[in-house]
Design goal:
alpha/beta, 434 Repressor (Amino-terminal Domain), Trna Endonuclease, Chain: A, domain 1, 2 domains, 10 helices
Amino acid sequence: MDGRRIGRVVRVLRHRLCWRQLDLAGRAGLSQSLVSLIERGHIEAVAVGKLEAVLRALDADLVLLARWRGGDLDRLLDEAHARLVGVAVELLTAAGWAVEVEVTYAVDFEQGSIDILAWHSGSAALLAVEVKSELVSVEETLRRHDAKARLAARIAVERFGWRGRTVARLLVLPEGTTPRRRVARHDAVLARAYPLRSIDARAWLSAPTTAQGSLVFLPSPPSNRARGRSGSPTRKRVRRAVTRSI
């Protein structure tokens, strides 16, 4: 991060609001000395959460960008997401769901894409699936997933002729210590949106009679590059469910 630039941004926005450092500190729930430290560009020892609090008080956002070997990092992140989507598709099709992947939409003033939109014909149930290779912001994840679930019924009938009686949400995370620790830390919030976990979530997928929110951890297969280093890759053909208009 460019500490000096962040400091300048904070100072300029504060002046624009005609606030003192003490005013900003009060709104951010921090000390005036910390605000002063940030404005002088000394952010090395400042927790990211405190930087976010200061910028939120100024109606601004903190965006962190990691760079590694040019564009390779974005490609690696996309690969991890795509592999996890593939595992989720296998789980859903095995449970009798028809799936569509990366369903883009532009409804009124809202645009985006649903990682997986699934349809269970026997129960006339729709499922908006959000796949996260890493859970960075719980609040942002909940907000976006809620918007996608809210629009799912309209998108499903207009695009695929699926007329769902219920719309549920499924959050897919990679199996691992870090994702589980992250969920445990925010479980008071996540449990309200995704009450079904593990065995209960998988049981619901087989018989989706109610609009429940679920969260599952799925093992993400290694990348092609990793398999190449460890030995000959194994090939697996995944059959995608055929969707029909109802």
